[in-house]
C-alpha cells in the first residue's frame, strides 16, 4: 500500500440501502482517509449501522458506488473482509471458550498459523489490559473487559481499517475512558478507525472528522471544531425553570442570544458570552431554579441541524 496519507480507504457516492419500502440510507457521499478516525454521529435509526454493514461488506449495497480499500464489496467481499477489523455493537464473544481461546481460535478463522496466532493473542491480551484473565471464562469478565476483548479480537488479523459500531454503549464512564485511550493508541499506530456513536463527547474525543447523520441522510460534515464553529455559538447558557414554564419564557429571553432552544426541562440560550446572558436574565426579574454556562458541543450542532437531541 502507498504511504500517501491522503489515500482513500473508503469511498461512497450516492450510497443507498433499502429494506423493502424502508430506505435506511438515502444517497450519502463519504470519504475516509488513511490513518484518520472518522465518525458517524446520530441517534438510533439514523442509518449509521446500515452504513457500517455495507462498509463491512456483509450487507449488499442497494444502489450507488462503494469502494473499500479500492475494491468493490459486490465482487471482492472476502478480500475486503480479510483486511477489516469489525467490532459489532453487541458483544459476540464465545462463552464456551476462555478469554485466550476467544482470540486464538478467531485468528485461526483467518488462516493465521498457530504460532503467530498464539503470539498475537498474547500481544492483544496485553493491549486490552486483561492478561491476568487469559484463562478466565468470558462470563466472568466485567462489561468493560468484554468490550476490550471484543476490540482485541477484531485486531487479530492486523486490519487496515477498524470498524467500531457504538463501541462504548452500556459502559460506565471509567470503562469508556480506558477504551478511548486504547482507540487513540491504535490511531497513533496508523490504524484507520471508523466509529458510529450517539455520544457527542465520544465523537469529540476520538474523531478527526465526522458526519452528522439523521433519518438516512448526512446533515453536516467536518471536524468537531469546524461543525461547532459553523453551527453553534462559543457558549450556551442553560436556564432551568419550573415544570411547564420553559415554552412561555422562551420569548422573554430570545433577544439575549443568537437563538433559543426549548427543551422539556430547560432553555438553551446560544451566545458567545454566556455569563452576560445569565446576568441579563436575572436583571429582567426572571429567577431560574438553576443556571449553567458551558461551551457548545456536538449535541448543540445536532439540535440546530435536526431540531431534536441525540438521545431522542
Automatic annotation (TrEMBL):
Q: Which part of the chain is the ABC transporter domain?
A: 10-240
Q: Which SUPFAM superfamilies match?
A: P-loop containing nucleoside triphosphate hydrolases (SSF52540)
Protein name per UniProt: ABC transporter ATP-binding protein
Location relative to the cell: Cell membrane
* Family (UniProt): Belongs to the ABC transporter superfamily.
List the keywords (alphabetical).
Answer: Antibiotic resistance, ATP-binding, Cell membrane, Membrane, Nucleotide-binding, Translocase, Transport
Q: Its domain of life?
A: Bacteria
Predominant localisation class: membrane
Q: Which Pfam families match?
A: ABC_tran
Keyword Transport carried by entry: yes
GO MF: ATP binding; ATP hydrolysis activity
Name a biological process GO annotation: response to antibiotic
Can you list the GO cellular component terms from the UniProt entry?
plasma membrane
Membrane topology annotation? Peripheral membrane protein
Amino acid at each position: 500500500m502507498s504511504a500517501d496519507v491522503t489515500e482513500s480507504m473508503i469511498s461512497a457516492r450516492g450510497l443507498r440501502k433499502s429494506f423493502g419500502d424502508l430506505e435506511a440510507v438515502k444517497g450519502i457521499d463519504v470519504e475516509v482517509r488513511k490513518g484518520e478516525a472518522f465518525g458517524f454521529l446520530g441517534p438510533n435509526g439514523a442509518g449509521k449501522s446500515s452504513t457500517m454493514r455495507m462498509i463491512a461488506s456483509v450487507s449488499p449495497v442497494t444502489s450507488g458506488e462503494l469502494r473499500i480499500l479500492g475494491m468493490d464489496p459486490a465482487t471482492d467481499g472476502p478480500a475486503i473482509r480479510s483486511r477489516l477489523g469489525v467490532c459489532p455493537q453487541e458483544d459476540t464473544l464465545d462463552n464456551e471458550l476462555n478469554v485466550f481461546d476467544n482470540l486464538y481460535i478467531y485468528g485461526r478463522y483467518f488462516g493465521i498459523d498457530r504460532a503467530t496466532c498464539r503470539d498475537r493473542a498474547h500481544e492483544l491480551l496485553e493491549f486490552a489490559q486483561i492478561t491476568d484473565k487469559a484463562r478466565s471464562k468470558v462470563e466472568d469478565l466485567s462489561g468493560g473487559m468484554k468490550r476490550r476483548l471484543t476490540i482485541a479480537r477484531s485486531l487479530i488479523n492486523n486490519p487496515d481499517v477498524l470498524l467500531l459500531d457504538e463501541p462504548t454503549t452500556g459502559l460506565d464512564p471509567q470503562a469508556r475512558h480506558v477504551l478511548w485511550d486504547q482507540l487513540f493508541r491504535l490511531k497513533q499506530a496508523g490504524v484507520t478507525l471508523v466509529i458510529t456513536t450517539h455520544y457527542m463527547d465520544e465523537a469529540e474525543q476520538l474523531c478527526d472528522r465526522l458526519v452528522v447523520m439523521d433519518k438516512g441522510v448526512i446533515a453536516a460534515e467536518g471536524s468537531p471544531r469546524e461543525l461547532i464553529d459553523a453551527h453553534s455559538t462559543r457558549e450556551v447558557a442553560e436556564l432551568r425553570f419550573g415544570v411547564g414554564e420553559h415554552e412561555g419564557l422562551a420569548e422573554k429571553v430570545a433577544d439575549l442570544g443568537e437563538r433559543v432552544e426549548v427543551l422539556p426541562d430547560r432553555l438553551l440560550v446560544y451566545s458567545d458570552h454566556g455569563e452576560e446572558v445569565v446576568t441579563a436574565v436575572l436583571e429582567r426579574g426572571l429567577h431560574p431554579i438553576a443556571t449553567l454556562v458551558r461551551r457548545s458541543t456536538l449535541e448543540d450542532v445536532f439540535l440546530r441541524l435536526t431540531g431534536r437531541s441525540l438521545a431522542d
